[in-house]
Amino acid sequence: MIKEKGILFVLSGPSGVGKGTVRKALFEQDTDLRYSISMTTRAPREGEKDGVDYFFKTRNEFEKLISEGELIEYAEYANNYYGTPKAYVQQTLEEGKDVFLEIEVNGALQVRENFPEGVFVFLIPPSLEELKDRIVNRGTETEEKIKARLEAARDEIDMMDNYDYVIVNDNVDHAVSKVQSVVLSEHCKRSRVAKQYKQALEEDLT
Ligand SMILES: Nc1ncnc2c1ncn2[C@@H]1O[C@H](COP(=O)(O)OP(=O)(O)OP(=O)(O)O)[C@@H](O)[C@H]1O
Ligand SMILES: Nc1nc2c(ncn2[C@@H]2O[C@H](COP(=O)(O)O)[C@@H](O)[C@H]2O)c(=O)[nH]1
């Protein structure tokens, strides 16, 4: 029997909207999704661990990964590189397991070109004021970096029409439930078993 490939889910949205928070809450639940840990040249924040939060790389190391074609997408964001490792994503999908990416919008658009069968989810804040409060209150960025992220947010929000689903992150639990519904609904849509039933029913009807 041919094994069904896994589904690639991509969660994106402006900085500070809560992508990381929603993703972590989702993975605290019982989920069959596999999270792809990104590579970055950004310095680790307090408490972040190499190989858990990110694979932390120097710029030289990252540029080597780019030139060797080891990333399915990458973007320069707020003066640092971020990218998704190709081998892990491809191998995991081949094994029939779903992969979950949490990335910014330029990277998501690149993934869409290479994986048009992926499922693209955009997280939006209830308001720009709330977005600003979230980035400021997180307390991880300097004033200058907050300004750069908020400026980028306006262009990022403009891109939401390129996504399959848009979810407002006004409440983490609600947003997580909606992401879970997307995962479930995509499985129902693509299920080979459902297709076999449909074929059998169609044959019965003729
Ligand atoms: N629904 C929510 N209501 C209130 N605060 C939230 C909500 N979701 C996330 N937050 C808070 O907003 C801040 C930003 O969240 P988070 O770091 O998850 O955003 P992000 O989109 O991953 O940001 P970045 O792209 O910069 O990594 C955090 O302090 C988080 O606790
Ligand atoms: N294009 C990619 N963007 C990524 C990836 N991993 C994370 N990100 C996004 O970068 C920004 C900044 O992240 P932060 O941890 O410095 O706050 C945020 O929007 C992330 O979602 C990736 O592999 N590719």
UniProtKB/TrEMBL annotation:
GO molecular function: ATP binding; GMP kinase activity
Chain residues that bind ATP: 13-20
Top-level EC class as recorded in UniProt: transferase
Gene3D superfamilies membership: Guanylate Kinase phosphate binding domain, P-loop containing nucleotide triphosphate hydrolases
InterPro entries in the cross-refs: GK/Ca_channel_bsu (IPR008145), Guanylate_kin-like_dom (IPR008144), Guanylate_kinase (IPR017665), Guanylate_kinase_CS (IPR020590), P-loop_NTPase (IPR027417)
Localization: Cytoplasm
Protein name as annotated: Guanylate kinase
Keywords assigned by UniProt, alphabetized: ATP-binding, Cytoplasm, Kinase, Nucleotide-binding, Transferase
Pfam families in UniProt: Guanylate_kin
Name of the gene: gmk
The keyword Cytoplasm is assigned to this record: yes
EC number: 2.7.4.8
SUPFAM superfamilies: P-loop containing nucleoside triphosphate hydrolases
Function comment: Essential for recycling GMP and indirectly, cGMP.
Domain called Guanylate kinase-like: residue spans: 6-184
Catalysed reactions, as listed in the record: GMP + ATP = GDP + ADP
GO cellular component terms, semicolon-separated: cytosol
Domain of life of the source: Bacteria
Organism of this sequence: Salimicrobium jeotgali
PROSITE patterns (alphabetical): GUANYLATE_KINASE_1, GUANYLATE_KINASE_2
